Amino acid sequence: MIGRGGPDFQHVLHPAGPQAARIAHLGWFAFVVAATVWVITVSVLLWAIARARRRERADEPVPADGERRMTWGVAFGIGASAVILLVFLGYDLVVGRTLSPVPSAHPLTIEVNGHQWWWEVQYADTAVHDRFTTANEIHIPVGEPVLFVLTAQDVIHSIWAPNLGGKKDLIPGYTTSVWFQADTPGVYRAQCAEFCGVQHAKMALFIVAESRAQFNRWAIQQRQPAAKPADSVAGHGYEVFVTSSCVMCHNLEGTTAGSHAGPDLTHLASRRTIAAGTLPNTRGNLAGWIVDPQRIKPGSHMPPNMLEPKDLDALLTYLQSLK
Amino acid sequence: MRASSLVIVLAASSLIGCEREERTFRETPPSTTPTAVRVSALQPGTPADTTHTVNPYERNAYAQSEGQRLFGWYNCSGCHANGGGGMGPALMDDEWIYGSAPEQIYTTIVEGRPNGMPSFAGRIPSYQVWQLVTYVRSLSGLTPSAGRSARVEHMMIYPGSQSLQKAEKPKWSFTPPAAVQP
Amino acid sequence: MKLHRALRSVSFILFAAACTRERGPEHGYEPAPPAPAGSDARATAALDAEDGQWTLPAKSYSALRYSQLTEITAGNVKNLRPVWTFSTSVLRGHEEPPIVANNTMYVLTPFPNVLYALDLTKTGAPMKWKYEPKPAAAAQGVACCDVVNRGPTIAGNKIVFNTLDNHVVAVDAASGKEVWTTQVGDINTGETMTMAPLVVKNMVLVGNSGGEMGVRGWLKALDLNTGTVKWTAYSTGPDSEVLIGPRFKPFYKKDQGKDLGVRTWTGEQWKIGGGTVWGWLSYDPVLDLVYYGAANPGPWNPDQRPGDNKWTSTLFARDPNTGEAVWAYQMNPHDLHDYDGVNESLLIDVPWKGVRRKALVHPDRNGYVYLMDRTTGELLSAEPFVHITSSHGVDVTTGELALEATKQPKIGEVVRDICPAAPGGKDWQPSSFSPRTGLVYIPHQNLCMDEEGLEANYIAGTPYVGMNVVMKAGPGGNRGLLTAWDPATQRAAWVLKEDLPVWSGTLATAGDVVFYGTMDGWFKAIDARTGAALWQYKTGSGIIGQPVTYRGPDGKQYVAVVSGVGGWSGAIVAGKLDPRDSTAALGFAAAMTDLPQKTTKGGTLYVFALP
Questions:
Q1: What angle do CA C29, C33, C38 make, to 5 degrees?
Q2: Which ipTM value was assigned to this complex?
Q3: Measured between beta carbons, which residues in chain A are less than 8 angstroms from residue C457?
Q4: Which residues of C are tagged catalytic?
Q5: Comparing C-alpha atoms, which of C330, C314, C235, C329 is closest to residue C273?
Q6: Chain A residues 224-283 with CB within 8 Å of chain B
Q7: Using the beta-carbon criterion (under 8 Å), do A260 and C304 form an inter-chain contact?
Q8: Distance between the two ends of chain C, CA-based, in angstroms?
Q9: Cα-to-chain-centroid distance, residue C108
């Protein structure tokens, strides 16, 4: 559906990268062991119940060494549990250790800043001029580790892309980091995993894993300033943008609109969704979002905009030209 | 008698509580826009309509905190600091160049004022202007204290917005060098 | 009890003594004995012939603010008395100097920028004419630090100045009739103009203000006769717009490279990146170079503008004919604390390792006095003149400033005790230089600050800062200092402590007297050699202006200064701010909470003479 990622786009059992795979293996291992233990325990319990009933029917006395045997049984149970838990702990630690260090000296670094209720994404580059900002959609090259540097603007958020990795908290005034790697190309949905206010549920993020060549093409495009209006309608739309409330919160790189209170719209039309993964990025949805956002995402910081139909139409044309 | 008065008190307090805690996300635009705002107290002839427009959010804590957020987002704080002023006048004192009534502050924000206050007409939706009005009035203690926040989250030497206007003027501790007489 | 009282009085006496005359703030300077006249160990400067006038705010192209008049001396200055005064009718900060030419005194007020011409040939100096440019009142809303103006300048038969709403105006100096007016900026992008123009070779050099509003800085040259713009040199952007060409030879590797004004910024941020030119220009007619500094990058919050942010906080040397940059030196790459580079550069000659070098002395906001070879841009030395915690020094071989990592402000974090504070070790207030003592008299402040980064939103025509700042007095508790700096030894000869920031300029004279004013209204004369207090007079308001001296039509020497508190430091009084908010006036109000009790606003010109 949204993002056309297929049914597996947010699924912890369909890992698309090494970390998620390790976590999935750990999960499967824990599941199999726990299931085995459960089956054995239930079987033994059923056997014990059956035997006790048989003894009761046969009026057999409790064996004299019953107490001792029970002690042995309990001791074995505790010992086995301890061993299994220790194995879990060990495996867990091993997985944790293999997840934390980034396997690259100079990984692609992406700074993610959590806002109520959207994600600000900055591609940090060693060449300062090549840094760029986008929102709610992250593109990464497949087969490469990607380091995410995380912080938050207002309250604590958490990033979790079940197919790839996480979670990690985004904390105001503090920087954390996590790395992912996607081995299978595709579109994966990430979600805020720490309750952060009324629209916590509609705070999603799409991670697009693509080939290095595709990623480079995308990055070059994202580094461009906002496209100049191609015709008079789009030109009017630009005028509407910079003379209405849009200009108070949004950035269009290379124009007089430079606020960072809301998502960067420099390449809005290149993104799959609007309102942090809430709606597919279509002209109709965009119109509805601009005119009455509180119906779509009540409590969000986007105010309603009562635009004349002609102005709205021109604004939509302009926004859709921001490839 | 006692029970009924208790019920009345509880009902009244719950109503107050409602107004304080209410969160209206979807305002039906356009919300109230004040008309015929007077900035002067003088009216030729017999003064008429001396009443002020009621700010719909006067008692509402959510609107006030939203106003505080917008005060930063829309760069009001760039000129008025956190109420003490800078490029623009102080807002937490008891001096009001263009009036302290809700509709006067509303008009100041929307229409601007000639000596440097920009006009935000068409840039800020009217319900957000009212939220800003609530916050601006709270800075000098003009809104009911129940709706005001008790703290500021940012770096301040002095206490937060609830009590800032009650704070004592800070004292300076340096003893100046003795004046040299000619 | 008795002992206690005795101890208290002893400590009071010691304290009072310490306050009036004090050694270096932290280095334990030995007071340097004044070098004998003609000694090679002393800094000197080429002087023009003394005409008894004061036609440029800095007196001379070399920006020395030194008068060769000798009637008023250290011996007789105690007899100085006011002879006439003049009310400017403006209540904001008066940073301007009175300008004297052809027996006329010109006083330019802060906004609304009224220019008065006063006839010095008549008793009491009656008004000859006044010129009112009527700038847009809305301009007051985008002037970051009070609506000041730093002075007009005389050029031939014209007097030229800038208005707050970005008009450069040339007025006939004799009649007061407007000759031309040119709009060079737009208040809707946050631009204003407060600096004093410098006229070089029939060109009026002007720059803009607005580094706190996301303005892109520039220096423009206007034709003195017509007012048309001949060239514009931006402080940020591609080399073609910064006017960097084949002649550009920066001394240090860190300042070399193509299009650094773009490549050291993310995306298009250089378009709103500051680097305004609101400070002082000086000019060397022999080398034919103009020197000036570009201001801080915007926003203040450094997290939002990764990179070196060239060419903000940079000293430029340009050829005034074409505007071409000849060299540049960035004092504060990726500036963290609003350390503008706009302070004055005094053009002096300094004995350096046995050779006399054509140098410039630039006391920067970051707390170091930069001594540079003004021909090549080579840094000879950079020594601290104030308490510094934000950096550890400047490497003269690479030109790099060593920053203290723990003092870097970040979004959502409070960083404490950053010294110097945002106004720097020294702000705009200009220094003077006396070739007789070889000392530079630096008026400055001793302030530290706490900072908390905030996300800044650029909305054109509104502030673009992103920082909560709270300022306080630096070590010692005194907020002001007057340092007599010896450029030859790169250390302070002596230091005077003042309670309030010394926000006025200084004036040095051949009578070995240095004049300056304090923010509580005292106009003071001190001994140029020792710093000993000689005379003081209490004016009506705090002094943040630039004192000047001239020879009147009667042949007597006069000293003039405009009193009228305001500016960034005095905004708490001029703007009636509320000090209960410690971040008021970008944090300056917190350090000036006592000023409303010490002075009131109102602009008045005072003229003094010996009886």
A1: 135
A2: 0.89
A3: 248-249, 258-261
A4: 212, 296, 338
A5: C235
A6: 243-245, 247-249, 259, 261
A7: yes
A8: 50
A9: 17
Q: Which of B25, B29, B125 sits opposite A298 (nearest CB)?
A: B25
Cis bond upstream, residue C311 (ω within 30) = yes
C583: nearest CB among B73, B84, B176: B84
Return the pLDDT at B15: 55
Residue of A nearest to C215 (CA): A256
Q: How far apart are CA C505 and CA C486, in angstroms?
A: 18
- Please answer whether residues A19 and A27 qualify as being in contact, where contact means their C-beta atoms are separated by less than 8 angstroms: no
Measuring CA to CA, which residue among C156, C49, C100 is closest to residue C548?
Answer: C100
Confidence (pLDDT) at B10:
61
Distance CA C437, CA C505 (A): 18
pLDDT > 90: what percent of chain C?
Answer: 91
Q: Which residues of A touch C460 (CB under 8 A)?
A: 247, 256, 258
Beta carbons of C458 and A153 less than 8 Å apart: no
Number of H helices, E strands in chain A: 8, 13
Would you call the peptide bond into C299 cis, given omega within 30 degrees of 0 as the criterion?
yes
Which residues of chain C neighbour B154 with C-beta distances below 8 Å?
452, 454, 468, 583
Please list the ranges in chain A whose pLDDT falls under 70.
1-8
Coil/strand/helix, residue C203:
strand
- B78 neighbourhood in chain A, CB within 8 Å: none
Q: How far apart are CA C310 and CA C299, in angstroms?
A: 14
Cβ C460–A129 below 8 Å, yes or no? Answer: no
pLDDT tens for C493-546 read: 999 999 999 999 999 999 999 999 999 999 999 999 999 999 999 999 999 999
CA pair distance A293, A300, nearest whole angstrom: 8
Quick check: helix, strand or coil at residue C326?
strand
Task: Please answer whether residues B88 and B71 qualify as being in contact, where contact means their C-beta atoms are separated by less than 8 angstroms.
Answer: no
The residue of chain C with its CA nearest to that of A155 is: C412
DSSP secondary structure code for residue A129 in this structure: G
Mean of the per-residue pLDDT values of chain C: 93
